[in-house]
Amino acid sequence: SNQNAIELKHVDKDFRSKQLIKDAVLDNDFLKNLDSTQIREIVDCMYEKAVKKGNFIIKEGEPGQHVYVAADGEFEVQKEDKVLGKMHTGRAFGELAILYNCTRTASVKAITDVKVWVLDRQMFQAIMMKTGLQRREEN
Ligand code: CMP
């Protein structure tokens, strides 16, 4: 049966990238309790994007469309123009607006040329739906 409107589209990636994404998810307090099937789908569905130095990946107050994992480079988290901290390779971010349907709680800026792994909101929700339904069918 297929009750999902969205098809889970897998993007090929090497072992090292898969491990980096998985470790980032498991290191994130809000994502680490997802089940292993869901985490594997997140790993398989993320796609890579390059962002140039100085650009914002996330802007505070906007609705959220994506979850990210820092793949390369340096990032700065800002709130009301104050710097909250820096982030490096291997951090998952942008999960709050997706999980809680709130607006972005902070801005995230590329302070070098960076690469990120990206997962679209609809894909994230389809992954949550799919494994939720599978679990229900098993009971
Ligand atoms: P979200 O609110 O979707 O978008 C901004 C992201 O920045 C947020 O999810 C978190 O992933 C991250 N973030 C928010 N506040 C902090 C903080 N104080 N330190 C580090 N990262 C943060």
From TrEMBL:
Domain of life: Eukaryota
Entry keyword annotation includes Kinase: yes
Sequence ranges assigned to domain Cyclic nucleotide-binding in this UniProt record: 30-139
Swiss-Prot/TrEMBL keywords: ATP-binding, Coiled coil, Kinase, Nucleotide-binding, Serine/threonine-protein kinase, Transferase
GO cellular component, one term: cytoplasm
Signal peptide positions on this chain: none
GO molecular function: ATP binding; cGMP-dependent protein kinase activity
Protein name: Cyclic nucleotide-binding domain-containing protein
